[in-house]
Design brief:
disordered N terminus, 24% helix, alpha+beta
Length: 368
């Protein structure tokens, strides 16, 4: 079932007249100088598909800014994977993917901060989040989808079901590495040691998962894929790169914001073959390299799934748990964390003040 919208040239940043209050982060993004690349890319994706919910723009501007941002990312990622993407019946779950005569259904979800929302999505930090706090937030979001019992829906029965998740609950969560997801999903901790001959010795250790309950107490929990109800979940698709920085890079590649941006330098840490520690990278977008929606995305296969996923359907990093060992299928560049350095053509003193209020005091200075 496909939802038909009348307007395919809509500006999702034009304030809706029937809304009395707006999400703080949406308002700041709307008025933030220097974000034309991201805003152009967001508008492009939204207007390229008729399947987004009828209330998508209202949700994006008010109550579900991050969730809608993640849906945009998911759609573009699936399209990059050469799936035919359609909305599910009643939008439950969110996406139906078709390829090679096979259908996969996908529900997207985000982990969000509790209490008052802040501008975390705009902040860059080098700090890493506590593993227990991360697993508490991620686990809560994933566990909530088990209670939906999508597998009982007629249009979902006997089809692989993927939960696609992006953490938005803190700025630090953007830097949490993929090995924490391995620990949470499979209950396996990975230990690496570089031997004298240069080879890497990898050990797979049975670990324990913990979370904080509503009283703040730390309690032990099962690995997600070991839960009885998780057998209906074929896999978990994870990334921490669905940020405004990613939309800025992709938008710049697609020609948005080029009038006020000379270039974008993407720097950070990424996976390094035959090394324990990640390596540093620096990419001049469009000149020394390009970004892609598949970079930084990992598909974790559930070893206990009733309806397994055919790994040939996805061109991204994938993880499987076989005979008590973790197997990786890595695909090209895999960033763990990163940030943009934007080379500007001209930004007024007032514009710098506005940017600095959201991006940090040193984001822009008079020498730029």
């Amino acid at each position: 079932m496909e939802v038909i919208r009348k307007n395919f040239n809509m500006d999702v940043f034009e304030l809706l007249s029937d809304c009395s209050s707006f999400d703080e982060r949406f308002i700041s993004l709307k008025g933030l100088p220097g974000m034309l690349s991201a805003k152009g890319e967001i508008n492009r994706i939204y207007n390229s598909w008729s399947g987004f919910d009828e209330d998508f723009v209202k949700q994006f501007q008010t109550l579900n800014f991050e969730a809608r941002l993640w849906e945009l990312y998911c759609y573009e990622f699936f399209k990059d994977q050469e799936f035919v993407v359609e909305p599910c019946n009643e939008n439950r779950p969110d996406f139906s993917l078709l390829k090679n005569g096979r259908e996969i259904v996908v529900e997207s979800v985000t982990s969000n901060e509790s209490g008052k929302r802040t501008k975390q999505i705009y902040l860059n930090t080098l700090e890493r989040e506590d593993r227990i706090d991360f697993k508490t937030r991620i686990g809560s979001a994933l566990f909530s989808k088990l209670n939906k019992e999508y597998h009982k829906l007629e249009w979902v029965k006997n089809k692989p079901l993927i939960i696609a998740i992006q953490p938005y609950h803190s700025a630090e969560s953007f830097n949490m590495n993929v090995y924490t997801m391995v620990s949470y999903l499979y209950g396996i901790d990975i230990s690496k040691e570089k031997l004298a001959n240069g080879e890497i010795l990898t050990r797979f250790l049975k670990g324990k998962n913990f979370k904080r309950n509503h009283n703040g107490e730390v309690i032990e929990i099962d690995a997600y894929f070991n839960l009885e109800m998780s057998k209906y979940i074929s896999g978990v698709l994870f990334t921490n790169t669905a940020t405004l920085g990613k939309f800025s890079r992709m938008g710049y590649q697609n020609g948005f914001g080029v009038d006020d941006t000379l270039g974008i330098i993407y720097t950070g840490a990424c996976y390094a073959e035959n090394e324990i520690e990640p390596r540093q990278f620096s990419i001049n977008i469009g000149k020394t390299g390009f970004d892609n929606y598949r970079y930084g995305v990992t598909l974790f296969h559930n070893p206990n799934a009733i309806c397994p996923i055919n790994d040939e359907d996805f061109m991204c990093t994938q993880v499987k748990f076989i005979n008590n060992e973790i197997y990786w299928k890595r695909l090209g560049f895999y960033p763990y964390s990163g940030k943009n350095i934007r080379l500007i053509r001209n930004l007024s003193r007032e514009g710098k003040k506005i940017n600095n209020s959201f991006l940090g005091n040193n984001a822009f200075n008079e020498e730029e």
